[in-house]
Design brief:
Its main location: cytoplasm. Pathway: Amino-acid biosynthesis; L-methionine biosynthesis via de novo pathway; O-acetyl-L-homoserine from L-homoserine: step 1/1. The protein has 309 residues and is an alpha/beta fold. The protein has a single domain, classed as 3-Layer(aba) Sandwich (Rossmann fold), CATH 3.40.50. Helix content is 30%, strand content 25%. It has ten helices and twelve strands. Strands 1, 2, 3, 4, 5, 6, 7, 8, 9, 10, 11 and 12 form a twelve-stranded mixed sheet that branches. Helix 1 crosses helix 3. The longest helix is centred in the last third of the chain and has 17 residues.
Length: 309
């Protein structure tokens, strides 16, 4: 089944070239189906790239999905046009009375800042609080995962000695969890971050469990035992070239970044990186939609008010 998005969203053209079935709003109105309502809080600078990456993954399911986008009203986007935001994004005040089956909170390149110094931290805290009664299951990515752990459990991030960037092996620790159903014992995933979370802090939090981690990169996936919140420290949604673009961006800024590990063949920048993580990415997001959301979400989403997650 297709994903349903605004009719003129530029990401549609990219996805259609990849033979991904995208249904616009007009056609979807004629189907008598209760689709899943998914909200994406896009905190990434280049929002159009992240839109394509996430919509691609959400399409790998037989479920029909309505997708809406949210941006922070208390932050001025510098890499996305105001016209794009006005046409395809909502502000929190516009939808805070609505209910959603799922919420995805992306990463953001602001790890060097304490959470309280982020200009939209107060607004984001309101969204976290709202999500407890208006969203059935939330999937947090990278900085979004660290921010969620900090807000909900007071688990703080810590600065790494250097940027963690590359493609790393990860071990599945809890294969019986439905979100990891069908996974091999080991899978690849990209990381791109300056901060991390201590596994000790997760283990000391009764509601949380470590589901997958890497000997090199550390934690990858943490789940709330009620299946209503997941925290991914890496970026399975990344494209083949994303780490390369980030490396070149940092070079242009004079940062002198480390070469992403296990990414360029033979560490040769002239060679095309191998795509080794999209199978895991597709499976993880499909499992989240199917088992954590679709199989358990109430038909009447207003029933979420009856249970605080």
């Amino acid at each position: 089944m297709p994903i349903r998005v605004p009719k003129e969203l530029p990401a549609i053209k990219v996805l259609e070239k990849e033979k991904i079935f995208v249904m616009d709003e007009d056609r979807a109105m004629h189907q008598d189906i209760r689709p899943l309502e998914i909200l994406i809080l896009n905190l990434m600078p280049k929002k159009d790239e992240t839109e394509v990456q996430l919509l691609r993954l959400l399409s790998n399911t037989p479920l029909q999905i309505n997708v809406e986008f949210l941006h922070m009203s208390t932050h001025e986007a510098k890499n996305t046009s105001s016209d794009h935001l006005k046409r395809f994004y909502h502000q929190f005040n516009e939808l805070k009375e609505k209910f959603y089956d799922g919420l995805i909170i992306t990463g953001a390149p602001i790890e060097h800042l304490p959470f309280e110094k982020v200009d939209y931290w107060e607004e984001l805290q309101n969204i976290f609080k709202w999500s407890r009664t208006h969203v059935f299951s939330t999937f947090h990515i990278c900085w979004g995962a660290q921010a969620g752990l900090y807000y909900h459990y007071k688990i703080d991030k810590h600065l790494l000695n250097q940027k963690l960037t590359g493609i790393y092996n990860h071990d599945v620790l809890k294969p019986t969890w439905s979100i990891l159903k069908g996974f091999d014992d080991v899978f690849f995933a990209p990381h791109s971050r300056y901060t991390g979370v201590d596994r000790k802090d997760i283990n000391e939090t009764e509601e949380l469990e470590i589901l997958a981690e890497s000997k090199e990169a550390g934690l990858f996936l943490v789940g709330n035992k009620n299946n209503r919140a997941f925290y991914a420290m890496g970026h399975l949604e990344y494209d083949r070239e994303t780490l390369q673009r980030e490396f070149e961006r940092d070079q242009s800024k004079g940062i002198q970044p480390n070469l992403p590990q296990h990414y360029f063949p033979d560490d040769n920048l002239d060679k095309i990186p191998q795509l080794r993580w999209h199978m895991a990415a597709s499976l993880l997001f499909s499992n989240w939609l199917n088992y954590a959301v679709y199989q358990n979400t109430p038909y009447d989403l207003s029933d979420l008010l009856k249970s605080d997650k």
